[in-house]
Design a protein that fits this description.
The structure holds two protein chains of two kinds. Chain A has one domain. Chain A is an all-alpha fold. Chain A contains 15 helices and no strands. Chain B is α/β, with parallel strands linked by helices. Chain B has two domains: 203 residues, Rossmann fold; 69 residues. The chains are: A mainly alpha, B alpha/beta. At the A-B interface, helix 1 and helix 6 of A face helix 1, helix 2, strand 5 and helix 3 of B.
Chain lengths: 328, 285
């Protein structure tokens, strides 16, 4: 495959989907940063009003006093708190990314047939394989990297904002905000998740592309209804004792993988890692969030690789359909 | 071998309908061939087979290649405009030029921009903001800037007004066509292409019913406007079609002796449209 042409295919995907890949996450973080800023301003306004009435607002000791007495352990906890705040930005963007990618993949091979532009694309010397793989690459690499860049910018903006707020209250932002916060750990963790995500999300990418290239109308309904209907029938059949695919297993390993494994780090729901997180009590437990343990564990599981292989087969089927589909 | 495209026993079945029924044809280099037939005759299917967009039975080579195999290589030498408005609606003029320049080794950006100079299109304009006529101008500019050997046009001017239709074929003929290139065009608007065609292929019910150069057509076919009182003599010569114009019978002959016809009335060269009607209706009876 010609790498220069492939680069242009990726660019083409970006042009068409800039709204989803770039604008949507950007607007989302802008809104959340705006809400955070509003929160800080509102607090100031209320404080100002009350102080103008002669009241003196103080809960416990003054913050500036408090910070003087913080030891290393407390500073570490401040850092954890800041990291959690930053991580929440990652999560928000990952949720947005899930929806963007879900609908991007459903439309990727469907919209071009609907508006007949596929005839224009096919008049150019590009193989169907290269075209479909450029869509897979956009979903699994380009969009996540863009989302990561936006997340990192938003997290820096948040730290900047909190630092300025601290400064306005006579607190040294370097020592109490920018020092304890550790965005690098978050970023390393998030970047490390991207390659794992590529393997993990293949069944969903394959399934959505297959529906997109196969459905004559309403790819969304096909994509969702087929696995759901199968799950429902399966429940009835097992009630009747016809055959017995355990429901729980089907929903998490088949339907869930086909539809939801686009969700970044959704593998954490496997093997009880999510339970571990939900039981977080002390700050040591928080480390599970940043450890690469979950990543490695999922790459070591046969389940993951079977899913990836099935995903690749479905991508191959989507390529075949794009090549030979004759709608007349 | 001078054939750009060659079909032997080309057959395509959709379920129980036979879209192409063992078709043979040849398209030679440097020709402008009109593939003409009624709706559902198999025109589009034949083009799809030529472009490698569909599977088929029989033999078909385009530029020496089987279009089912190695399409990307074939498409370096073959261009097509399938229908008006297949350009994606979201793309901008400069994006589509960038993209084609990036992926097509035989595209000349400079040429395309030269063709676009005379139009109202501007670089930031999106296809969705263009009229049908402008979309076709853009598509044609791209296609003409590609140094390809075989251009396939499927109803390229459908839905355009007459000014844009005339401009389309004018440009194609003046700025693009030469002996190195071959054009295959299907259209319903036969009148507009008949002066530019060098060859005719009439297709009906999945079969080629006429395959001839325009020179052969004017050799073979003659149209006779019969003088009054001579109708029976004229009909006795075996016309393939008869119609009435201003109350006078007009008979179309295939391969009749012109000196005989001349005694019975006025002889004209039949238009492609009249010939088309005659061949299509003639075959029915």
């Amino acid at each position: 495959m010609n790498t220069k042409a492939f680069g242009w295919l990726l660019k083409r995907e970006y042009w068409e989907n800039r709204g989803g890949f770039w604008t949507a996450p950007l607007v989302t973080v802008a809104i959340f940063l705006g809400l955070n800023a509003l929160g800080l301003v509102t607090a100031e306004v209320f404080r100002g009003k009350l102080e103008a009435n002669g009241a003196h607002i103080q809960i416990g000791v003054p913050i500036s006093e408090l910070t003087k007495n913080l030891g290393d352990k407390e500073l570490h906890m401040v850092g954890e708190g800041l990291n959690m705040a930053m991580a929440s930005y990652s999560m928000i963007i990952q949720v947005v990314l899930f929806f963007v990618l879900f609908f991007y993949l459903l439309g990727a091979l469907y919209d071009e047939r609907k508006d007949r532009s596929v005839l224009f694309w096919k008049s150019l010397p590009i193989s169907d394989t290269a075209t479909v793989l450029s869509k897979v690459t956009s979903a699994l690499l380009v969009a996540p990297l863009l989302a990561f860049a936006i997340t990192a910018l938003a997290q820096l903006a948040l730290l900047g904002m909190l630092g300025l707020y601290a400064l306005a209250h006579g607190i040294n932002p370097v020592r109490f905000v920018w020092g304890p916060a550790d965005p690098m750990v978050l970023w390393a963790h998030q970047l490390a998740a991207i390659p794992v995500q590529i393997i993990w999300a293949l069944p969903a990418v394959g399934w959505l592309l297959l529906c997109s290239s196969w459905a004559r109308t309403k790819p969304f309904l096909w994509a969702v209804l087929v696995p759901v209907a199968f799950g429902v029938f399966n429940a009835f059949f097992s009630l009747w004792g016809l055959f017995n695919v355990p429901s729980q297993w089907y929903w998490s390993n088949v339907a869930g993988r086909l539809l939801l494994s686009l969700t970044p780090m959704s593998w954490l729901s496997q093997d009880g890692i999510i339970d571990q997180i939900s039981r977080i009590q002390s700050e040591q437990d928080l480390d599970v969030l940043y450890s690469l343990h979950g990543h490695l564990q999922i790459l070591g599981s046969l389940n993951t690789w079977i899913g990836a292989a099935i995903g690749c087969l479905m991508i191959a089927a989507a390529i075949y359909l794009r090549r030979w589909r004759d709608e007349s | 071998m001078n054939a750009i495209a060659e079909a032997r026993g080309l057959t395509k079945r959709y379920g129980s309908t036979l879209a192409l029924d063992g078709v043979d044809f040849e398209v030679d280099a440097g020709r402008i061939v009109g593939l003409i037939g009624p709706n559902g005759a198999g025109k589009t299917t034949a083009l799809k087979a030529l472009l490698g967009l569909t599977d088929f039975d029989g033999e078909l080579t385009v530029l020496g290649l089987d279009p089912r195999e190695d399409r990307p290589r074939l498409m370096q030498q073959v261009c097509f405009i399938a229908d008006v408005a297949t350009l994606p609606r979201w793309i901008r003029v400069n994006q589509v030029l960038d993209f084609v320049e990036g992926v097509h080794p035989r595209f000349s950006r400079e040429k395309a921009e030269r063709f676009l100079k005379g139009t109202k299109l501007y670089p930031e304009q999106r296809v969705r903001e263009m009229s049908k006529g402008m979309i076709v101008q853009l598509h044609l500019a791209i296609v003409m800037a590609i140094d390809a050997r075989f251009l396939v046009l499927d109803e390229p001017t459908l839905g355009l007004d007459i000014l844009h239709r005339k401009e389309f074929y004018g440009r194609l003929l003046n700025d693009y066509f030469d002996e190195q290139r071959t054009i295959l065009v299907t259209t319903h608007q036969v009148e507009e292409v008949e002066n530019i065609l060098t060859d005719l292929l009439f297709i009906k019910d999945g079969r080629i019913v006429l395959s001839a150069t325009m020179d052969e057509v004017s050799e073979r076919f003659s149209e006779l406007m019969v003088a009054s009182g001579r109708e029976d003599e004229a009909r006795a010569l075996g016309p393939i079609h008869e119609r009435t114009v201003f109350g006078r019978p007009v008979l179309l002959f295939d391969g009749a002796d012109r000196s005989k016809l001349r005694e019975l009335g006025e002889i004209h060269k039949p238009s492609v449209a009249d010939l088309f009607v005659a061949v299509m209706q003639g075959n029915e009876s």
